[in-house]
Amino acid sequence: AIIAVGISLLLGVNGLPYFNILTGKEISFAAYGASTITVSIVLLVTLITFLTGFYPATFLSGFNPVEGVRGTYTKGKKGEKIRRGLVLFQFTVTAILLIGTSLAYFQYQHMQSMDMGYEQEQIVVVPSSLSSVMWYYDEMKERSENHISVNSVTGSKTVMGSDRYFTYQIAPEGFGEDEAYSIAKLFVMHDFLETMGIGLIAGRTFSTDFATDPDEALLINKMMVDSLGWGSPEDALGKTFRIDDRTGTVVGVTEDFHYAHLRQDLEPVIIELPNSQNQRIANIDYLKFKIDGRNSSEALSHIEEIWSDIDRIQPFEYYFLDSKIEEMYATERQFSVLMGLFTILAIIVGCLGLLGLASYSVSQRTKEIGIRKALGASAAEIFYMFSKNYIVLIVIAHSVALPIVYFAANWGLSFFPYQIDLGFYLVGTFVASLAISIIVSLLTISSHTIKASRINPVESLQQE
To answer: pTM for the full model?
Structure first.
């Protein structure tokens, strides 16, 4: 136990930096103090020693000396049941982790592959909050779009796909002012739909040709039309919303798009322009540039040069939207990776237990093997004789794990509005996990069973 704890300490200390990188955490042994760690190690060694010595002491204390002297004592089945029970427990845990890891990975891939309703690639996002660039937004936009590698420029209050968005008390047409309810609203600049590649179903988008757009024009998504029962998207054009002390008119209806994180349901949304410079400075925190991927470095250099001309205090910082969205789902990715590592450890521990059980079983049944071989049993039949018991254990372990995984996965997926088909993936991962466990187990015990099947019957029967 002391040697094992010492090795684990070495692995822990040397592996902690890599674990922090993998999980994005900042865990440090120094935070716990030397005394806490020392006491924990002493208690751990004591506990392990007690547990490992408890069963042998209990078993030996129940030993009947008279039976032993007479030679009538036989190695009972109780120990065999305990050994099988421990292996069964190990493989149940392994099956839970193996199936659960697979489901977590498939859920992560499902979220990654979903159509968000807008373009993610080659969208450069520049944080602009508190920057003087927002005072000269029109100049920034015009000069940026003069470069051949910059297709369009816009701005917004939030980053698409994040869990940060804002709701306001808004009363749709047909509702009284006292019937206003919370509706998500996005503040954006001109060319927002064009830059983000969001489809327009009916009407028009914001345009500088309409001077009243900042004060009156609104865009809504199709879900808003459906939720209010306004009929077709074309029927929604001209409808109004009461926002604070003014009225906005719907001039266009967009395709549905996931403006928030996929952990949240797609909801109705209103899109509007800032109606003054002060509102623009207060409500536009990010600039977004649609660039040509073939000349991205030139486009970024051009944008940075303009930024530095306008704002000589705040540094130019940027990131690509697709990279940011991938970062937003890092939690799900890290969780599936960590579960994968724990699954590998569980498989190794399970195989060690199975290896010990197989070694013990072979040593106890050496004479039986000799008799069977003398009676004409082949090596394949003897291998099957040993293997079938372990296969049964693995099948039972998976049968125990299946309902546990189902309820755990059902609970975990309830936090995601957009879920994988649990029934389909659970059946597939269950079959795959069972096959992997059986193959690994047979490979683990094969050395002992094959060796036992090839032993000379004469030697087997001569053993005391």
So the answer is: 0.71
